[in-house]
Write a structure and sequence with these properties.
By secondary structure, this protein is α/β, with parallel strands linked by helices. It is built from five helices and six strands.
């Protein structure tokens, strides 16, 4: 928004911050933090854009926060929402259910098109069993392993979300989609965000279920 204001804060790490702020930062938390910093904002919407910890120098480490304030007259901040219309039209074939294939399918469904996603591997839950078989017994499933299957090679990593892409709006859009399907809210503002290996499989399952509910179809193995 053209009238939004960006507020930069540097807070000593010893600052007493609201309980639960490590995992989720809401409007009231941001108002409380701003009040502690002597910046009293009673109206409008607040959004945390970035949070990082500055360890440079010999002094006390400092939290660096970038907060966006939008006047109340402009309404709430926009965030990603799915298109609820069922996909129509001739099917479009997508090869691979990794990140590129999954988000290509999501884009197609958002525009009312009907994709079919084919993958050499398995959905994320049976893929877990194949990986356990490999780790415990040394038995390799050639079509379902760390490389092949739902989510691609990164599914069973810790889900680091680093990128050199300079398109901040595009990156924010992607992070909002991940947050919508179950990633922790902190990926929207942490300087070094990651989802966590325990959250990636259920996130992928919810994303697939959403795609299927809108007309997308999967063909495994």
């Amino acid at each position: 928004m053209s009238d939004s204001q960006i507020i930069e804060l540097r807070l000593p790490i010893s600052t007493v911050l609201p309980p639960g702020w490590a995992d989720c930062v809401d409007q009231e938390m941001l108002r409380e933090i701003l009040n502690q910093a002597g910046k009293h904002i009673d109206n409008g919407a607040l959004r945390l854009l970035k949070r990082s910890l500055d360890l440079r120098g010999r002094g006390e480490p400092k939290w660096q926060l970038r907060i966006e304030h939008q006047p109340k007259s402009q309404g709430p901040f926009e965030s990603w929402q799915p298109n609820t219309a069922e996909a129509q039209g001739d099917p479009i074939i997508i090869v691979g259910a990794g990140p590129a294939g999954t988000f290509a399918a999501l884009q197609l469904v958002q525009h009312g098109l009907s994709p079919i996603i084919v993958d050499r591997g398995e959905p994320v839950q049976p893929r877990r069993k194949a990986l356990a078989d490999l780790s415990a017994r040394g038995r390799l499933h050639t079509n379902s392993n760390y490389c092949f299957g739902e989510g691609g090679a990164g599914t069973f990593s810790d889900g680091k979300l680093y990128t050199r892409v300079k398109d901040k709006k595009g990156v924010r859009h992607l992070l909002e989609i991940l947050e919508y399907f179950g990633a922790p809210q902190r990926i929207l503002y942490d300087a070094r965000p990651h989802i966590g290996s325990n959250k990636l499989p259920p996130l992928l399952t919810r994303l697939r279920e959403h795609l299927e509910s809108r007309g997308a179809r999967y063909r495994w193995q």
